[in-house]
Amino acid sequence: MNSRLKFLLLNLFLFFALLTKAQEKITVGEKQTLFSTVLNEKREIWIHLPKTYNDTGINPAKYPVIYLLDGEINFEYYAGMSDFLAKPPYAEMPECIVVGIKNTERTRDLTPTKSGKKSPVNSNVVLFGDSGGSENFVRFIQEELKPFISKNYRTQDYSVLVGHSFGGLFAVNVLLTHPEYFNAYVANDPSLWWDNKVLISRTKDYLEKNKNFPAHKFLYVAQADNEEQNKNWNSDMTQAIEEFKEIIEKNGSLNYKHHFYENEVHGTVSYPGNYDAVKFIFKGFRTDIKKLSKNPQLLEEEYKRFSEKTGTNFLPSETYLNVVLKFMKSNDFKESEKYFNDLKHKLYPKK
Amino acid sequence: MNSRLKFLLLNLFLFFALLTKAQEKITVGEKQTLFSTVLNEKREIWIHLPKTYNDTGINPAKYPVIYLLDGEINFEYYAGMSDFLAKPPYAEMPECIVVGIKNTERTRDLTPTKSGKKSPVNSNVVLFGDSGGSENFVRFIQEELKPFISKNYRTQDYSVLVGHSFGGLFAVNVLLTHPEYFNAYVANDPSLWWDNKVLISRTKDYLEKNKNFPAHKFLYVAQADNEEQNKNWNSDMTQAIEEFKEIIEKNGSLNYKHHFYENEVHGTVSYPGNYDAVKFIFKGFRTDIKKLSKNPQLLEEEYKRFSEKTGTNFLPSETYLNVVLKFMKSNDFKESEKYFNDLKHKLYPKK
Fold first, then answer.
1. Mind listing the pLDDT tens digit for each residue in B108-131?
2. DSSP label at B32?
3. Phi first, then psi: what are they for B29, rounded to 5°?
4. CB contact under 8 A, B90 and A266
5. For residues A265 and B90, is the Cβ–Cβ distance under 8 A?
6. Do you know which InterPro entries this protein is assigned to (chains A, B) (predicted)?
7. B334-347 helix and B318-330 helix, angle to the nearest 10 degrees
8. How many CA atoms lie within 13 A of A248 on its CB side?
9. Residues of chain A below pLDDT 70
10. CA A157 to CA A138: how far, in whole Å?
11. Are residues A282 and A322 in the same domain?
12. CA–CA separation, B173 and A176 (whole Å)
């Protein structure tokens, strides 16, 4: 090898070595692109995998999936939040895969009907011309995105749909039109005022026809204190949400929680709303590690109860069992240690 | 160049090209390592830069810095949260740099005195042998980490210290021993029971000697509903926090807020606590873009008020002014558009 070539090779190597190492980054997800035949466009998807996803010390696990609308706004804190809340020993929820969907034509995708609205600031402008595409968008999610996620990642058959504003409208509409698509729905300050409250009519129609929602479905609605909006902007936002609340609570067949956030406005309510929503949806998931020391079979009892409530079979994860085992060992609870050792080997036999 | 060399070169190139592209990642920060002479060890620091930090469309801006203890647990959601809450037009806080400090010897660094404690689960075990190093740790932050951050990043002279449990104990201790180090302090479920409530004594001593806290200091305390812990674990946790609250509220010289979270336990309270804390610390930061359309000088009035409250000069960011300008333009508020255009060019003259 002549010396000029050696020099070139060395430089090339150093250049790429620097490029790849540089600063070590803290990542919370990866971007994927898939082409949607239904929508006839490319869609960008942001995917967060839980901390243990690539842990080679445990058997490969499967995880519930949370589908998050307006991905570009909510993905980063949501990914961090789901890891934080799923961290043993205080885990309030199972570790989840979070799938953020980035918008292309937001109004088109999230609204259930074609409807315009005069701009509240300038009445010459008609907003939302390109609306009414939500049925296509949910078909994209159900027929294209979900199979894509299940094919490429290890998923458990349990999913949640999370939206805000038009995204909340979309979530409620999916619950009414395809309740079987998701196990739980989160609607932060949903735009139920849309098109003369068309979803209020749909809710009434649904309940007239079906009487009840399917078993084990969950809906969390966060309502912001839109005092400002009430006066200047969206005077019918609050009223439509309250009307919906009344109908749902009266029917009583849905695991439903509504919370009014007096210190939040329309743009901020998703942050506490999404946190409280997962706590509501996964209520009963947390087990008290200290109680298990004297009452080890409590763990399976509580998981059984939680599984019945959600209509889905949830098992203590191998990661959680390892935390429990470590606790029993370090505090010298020998009997419980043996119990959980046996349970671990029953649930997660070594390959 | 002979063909074997060409082949080698091509392969090397492809290998590194793949390595650098692969999947596009979503990053929320970068890791840095610095050697601390004070602590005589290497420390890993996680740094989150706000969305506009590298925006070449605006003048390079300076940002307040939030120092976050237990970085490895809280960094990811906190980084996402600070971006979410700083997003115009609903921004409740300025864009901030978040500096997460990863633990090495947590108990050593965060506790103010040397003290042991019998394990509540097994009384033969004495916990916290290696305690009492907080004065060294705060010297590391003040004399080494802060200069490192200011040298490598564009920082505004405003900083916040955030901690949980022993980290909350640490934050309160820094407020008492070096109140000038930070503008605001956040203590989530602080371990004020530490060493026979030594910080309660220090608080009393401080107020006896100084009468008041320095002007413009802020402290937010989040208290979890540790009912379980009260019974089984840390019976003095709650009591010490309440004692502290009483002393501080009676003195009245601190911008102080205490909130009890009835649905949170010790391990989860930081999540809502950190959110509510920034909303408390930066209360008055948010301006209503719709009001500005008819009353443009309101923006400077509100920033002036906020600057007086915090004792720090805050200006509307160029990014926010661009959002305001866009709003005025698209809604045809010509006079306000001109006003904000002039203000933008006054505050951010083109280079």
1. 999 999 987 777 776 777 788 789
2. E
3. 180, 180
4. yes
5. yes
6. AB_hydrolase_fold (IPR029058), Esterase-like (IPR000801), Siderophore_Hydrolase_D (IPR052558)
7. 160
8. 24
9. 1, 14-22, 122, 226-235, 351
10. 18
11. no
12. 54
| A320 and A257 assigned to the same domain | no
Q: Is the Cβ pair A29, B24 closer than 8 Å? A: no
CA-nearest residue to A20 within chain B is: B20
Q: Does B31 touch chain A (CB under 8 A)?
A: yes
Residues B177 and B49 grouped into a single domain: yes
Least Cα separation, residue A332 to chain B (angstroms): 8
Same domain, A197 and A134: yes
Q: What is the pLDDT of residues B179-196, one digit of tens each?
A: 999 999 999 999 999 999
Separation between Cα atoms, residue B222 and residue B266, nearest integer Å: 10
Q: Which residue has the tokens 């506009």?
A: B52
Interface of A with B in 165-224 (CB under 8 A): none
Q: How far apart are CA B179 and CA B248, in angstroms?
A: 14
Tokens of B342: 């002039």
Pair A76, A144 in one domain: yes
Query: So what's the ipTM on this one?
Result: 0.90
User: B243 with B319, same domain?
Assistant: no
- Residue A14 included in any domain: no
| Cβ-proximal residues to B236 (8 Å cutoff; 6+ apart), any chain | B193, B197
How many domains does one find in chain A?
2
Lookup: tokens for B179: 């109140």
Q: What is the CATH number of the domain that holds B151?
A: 3.40.50.1820
Q: In this predicted model, what pLDDT tens digit does every residue of B223-264 receive, in sequence order?
A: 998 665 554 445 688 889 999 999 999 999 999 999 999 889
CB-neighbour burial class of residue B67 (10 A; exposed 0-12, middle 13-18, buried 19+) = buried
**Which domain covers residue B46, as residue numbers?**
27-286
pLDDT in tens, A220-266: 999 998 665 554 445 688 889 999 999 999 999 999 999 999 889 88
Q: Helix or strand or coil: residue A79?
A: helix
Q: What token pair was written down for A145? A: 């995105």
Q: Report the greatest alpha carbon distance in chain B.
A: 84
**By C-alpha distance, which of B209, B48, B190, B213 is closest to B111?**
B190
Q: What φ, ψ does residue B287 adopt, rounded to 5°?
A: -120, 150
**Which residues 88-117 in chain B show a CB within 8 A of chain A?**
89-90, 92
The dihedral built from the CA positions of residue B128, B129, B130 and B135, taken in this order, carries a sign that is: positive
Helix-strand-coil percent breakdown of chain B, rounded to 5?
A: 50, 20, 35
Q: Is there a contact between B92 and B116 (Cβ–Cβ < 8 Å)? A: no
Same domain? For A318 and A214 the reply is no
Cβ distance of B84 and A77 shorter than 8 Å: yes
Does the CA dihedral B85-B88-B92-B93 come out positive or negative?
A: positive
- Which residues of chain B are within 8 Å of residue A265 when distances are taken between CB atoms? 90
Same domain, yes or no: B126 and B101:
yes
